[in-house]
Write a sequence for this structure.
């Protein structure tokens, strides 16, 4: 069914339109400006910057599902702490995130979500518990796709082609 001009008027086909607040230039990122404007409108105040150890733990848990070792926590904590008290070294924090995104633990953690969506299993379930001997290939393909940062469109196309 072709998309008509009437269909194109729907908001799903329109480019996103967000007007930045007047004080947007003072913030590092436009998203920060939008969030702070919303907080001011509701008479709220932003929370203070999290401590480096909290940021490191949160990054590890979010991206890999694992907590950092004590040595990793100490090393990254020292690297991301800014020169002034309560500041953050943005470049080193970006380096931490890059490091975590290149780890196999990241691919394993996030591939699980996709494998849940497609109902991946290495057996037929408890009623007909027949083992599927080559199902590990698909699981490893999904993990490798996440590790290689495969383009989402390409990944979905390959899923449809393999189905």
């Amino acid at each position: 069914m072709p998309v008509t001009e009437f269909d194109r008027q729907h908001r799903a086909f329109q480019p996103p339109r967000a007007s930045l607040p007047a004080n947007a230039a003072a913030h590092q990122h436009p998203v920060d400006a939008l969030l702070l404007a919303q907080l001011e409108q509701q008479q709220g105040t932003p929370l203070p910057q999290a401590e480096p150890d909290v940021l490191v733990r949160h990054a590890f848990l979010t991206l890999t599902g694992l907590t950092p070792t004590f040595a990793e926590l100490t090393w990254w904590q020292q690297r991301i702490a800014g020169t002034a008290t309560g500041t953050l070294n943005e470049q080193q924090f970006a380096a931490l995130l890059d490091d975590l995104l290149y780890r196999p633990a990241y691919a394993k953690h996030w591939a699980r979500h996709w494998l849940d969506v497609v109902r991946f299993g290495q057996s037929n379930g408890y009623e007909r518990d027949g083992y599927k001997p080559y199902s590990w290939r698909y699981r490893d393909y999904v993990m490798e796709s996440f590790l290689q940062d495969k383009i989402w469109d390409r990944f979905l196309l390959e899923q449809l082609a393999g189905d």
Q: What stands out?
A: Residues 1-46 form one domain. The first helix runs from residue 5 to 8. The chain has a mean pLDDT of 86.
